[in-house]
Amino acid sequence: MSERTGDDSGEGRRGPRTFTPDFLTELFRNPLDPGYGDAALRRARTGQPARPGWSVSPVSVVVIVLLGFLCAVAYRQTTAEEPGRAQARSGLVAQIKQRQADTDAMSDRAEVLREEVNRQRQAALGGSQATRLRNLEASTGLGRVRGDGVVVRLADGPAGQGSLSGANVGPAEVLYSDLQGVANDLWGAGAEAISINGQRLTSTSTIRNAAKAILVDFRPVTGPYEVSAIGPGSMRKRYEASRSALTMRKVAQDTGLSFEVRDADDLTLPAAPEPQLRYAEPAVSPSASPSGGDESSGSGTSPSPSGGGR
After folding, report:
1. Does CATH number 3.40.1280.10 belong to domain 145-269?
2. What ranges do the domains of the chain cover?
3. What's the pTM?
């Protein structure tokens, strides 16, 4: 049994082991493409500068001139049409202001006519019936009311201000759901009449939002928001213990939103516009189907719903 000598080892049979550099090693060793070196050698032989100047073809010159001409024409048209756009904008603003003035005038006229109708109606009805009608109008929101009550004032916090305590309670803005909660809890505290920024609430009133605007009966209201309620003397104490009052105080403490509840004497709440009521009507009954009985029998009884008479 022969002994293995050093020549019989793997290195002796295969020769010395060599390591070929991989792609990354070669890339870092020679980062420049060989073509750049060849180009530099050719420039050195021919005596050309290392950075030749720009060569612009006639087609490129024509394209540049055409683009400049188009830009000049577009700029001139824009500046020429600007007075027309400004005039159209000012005309629209004037129309909006005129429509608002007309709407306010018609609202005032409608209020005057409503008062006149009420006087004529009370004169025609008599004492007890007129009193009953006034009470019904006050309870439904269709009549103006006066009395002592409570005013809840809500206002947005300073612009750009987030949560003061780091709590995730949302922005320092009054939401339509806040007004909903305040109105519902005031009703629960015994309120007999409620208005939001002069918009009287009725049984068909809605408080919704459209984008960032809050609508009360589809009429926009802006902050600060005042929810005025007429009711018994215990209404404020009962409302202070309600869920919306506790929630809004916490939100005001955390975000900087303004929330205030105060007593108010001799409040006057306007009447709500008369709603456009729609009444349900029964569907037209279908015509009677022909008799399913045996006509040859001569029976005078009507058939049963299943079609077979007795």
Report:
1. no
2. 145-269
3. 0.55
